[in-house]
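Let us practice reading a record.
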Amino acid sequence: MIRVTFLGTSAACPTVRRNVSAISVQREGELMLFDCGEGTQRQMMRYGTGFSIWAVFITHMHADHFVGVTGMLRTMALQGRSEPLLLACPVSGRRVLADAVHLGFDRLSFPVEIREMRPGDRVPRDGYDVCAFRVDHGMPALGYVLREADRRGRFDVERARAWPTISE
């Protein structure tokens, strides 16, 4: 099952009722974020998503899409996180994200991998991939799609035989 939580849907500035960009996606117990604008960690607390994120996928390098990373990492470190975290971003975003990761930290308690993505790149997971595709935004920008692996269906022959047939 997939659970999508819109943590922020505002544009460049938050409003009284809407935070800037962030979407939480939970797939069979795995949690990931798409964008992490300012205040995302508070929204995660508000909506009960938790912080057990394996990856954050940044769509583009405007501040309202990634500046929440620093505070979120701090909270994760204070909570004793040790699991690695992937930060995926468009090409040319590595330096900016590296600065955000190290802002205010001597050293994090967990490894952070920053991976620049290009259209067509994918991050494989058990049963699905997260694939990047190009979007037009006046700067390097990506969209992401969860592509499920084929699953073997379950067909119950006995139940099918018990169904009434439709005659013409």
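A brief commentary: Residues 118 and 145 are 13 Å apart (CA to CA).
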